[in-house]
Amino acid sequence: MSYVRPNIAAMAGYVPGEQPRPGSGILKLNSNENPYPPSPQVIEALRQVEPELLRRYPDPFARQFCQAIAEVLDVPADWIIVGNGSDDLLNLLVRACADDVARSIVYPTPTYVLYRTLAAVQPATVVEVPYPDDFQFPLKELVAAQGAITVIASPNSPSGHGVALADLRALAQQASGLVVVDEAYVDFAEGSALSLVQEFDNAMVLRTLSKGYGLAGLRLGFGIANPALLADLFKVKDSYNVDALAIALGTAAIRDQAYKNACVSQIKASRATLTQSLRQLGFKVLESHGNFVLATPPQGNAEQLYLALKKQGILVRYFKQPRLDDKLRISVGTEEQNHALIAALTHLKNC
Fold this sequence. Notes:
The protein is α/β, with parallel strands linked by helices. The chain is built from 14 helices and twelve strands. It has helices spanning 6-10, 40-47, 51-55, 63-73, 86-97, 114-121, 139-144, 165-174, 196-199, 227-236, 244-255, 257-280, 302-311, 335-350; strands at 27-28, 80-83, 105-109, 126-130, 149-153, 178-182, 203-208, 221-225, 284-285, 292-296, 314-315, 328-331. It has a seven-stranded mixed sheet with strand order 2-8-7-6-5-3-4, sandwiched between helices. A three-stranded antiparallel sheet has the order 9-10-12. The protein has a two-stranded parallel sheet with strand order 1-11. The termini are far apart. The mean pLDDT is 96.
């Protein structure tokens, strides 16, 4: 006997990348984590945490963090909603806006598979619009789907491509529902859709501190949108969805833009070198605007390489699904980590 709703019993849950034990010596290039530590200002803020901060409930609106974001991004503080990672905000949006009748969730594929999982939990109708092989934006098809929510990851994972601002603007102009631009990887890109939130009351941008700020373990993200939209989302938000430590440390991280930008510059340089090295081994590598690359092995034997690398203590991401099952998504590591990966792949190629 199942004690859960039928849709939960029938669905497949989201499967995160493998998480080895810290200190295990495994080279982890499978979850797009920042290879560099967080800002020294974050570590100092952690040292200065007082017990009173932990005894009391946190600010339910994370106003200290919102003010820091407002100053850095030049947006009003009351246009910001904070979540336990941007995944929390995606969940909130689905709960508030979608259902299984006429309020569908629309997104182009392949993309972040959590969108499908959150829809299944609701449950909500899903419309998946395939990207063409060249990843040109399928604007006409997305608009025609008439979603209650249309989610666009830009830069997109696992492909790494970015969607042009003009295309996102056209979508916001023509869409019948909410347009959410998931900018988890925006720190590694050249542009943003942030300006759209003041142009359109149906536009929302999501960001996270997991990637550019090296704080994946903190679980902190935020969304920016018109306050009228946020007012409805606050009704659905858990009372204290972000803890006091996350607010304090996230504020310190946001305020240290110089450190974040220096790490991002190094990762972008390493991304270019990694891409070149993989291509020299015969891989086809898409141009990436994230902190990862999507690479097709010359023999198309992605699963075999994934397993062989795993045996050598190197984790990359393999997706056993159509259009991705001949590819590997590889997070950009430090120069030393990237060299270790290329050495392992060179050895496997020559065996």
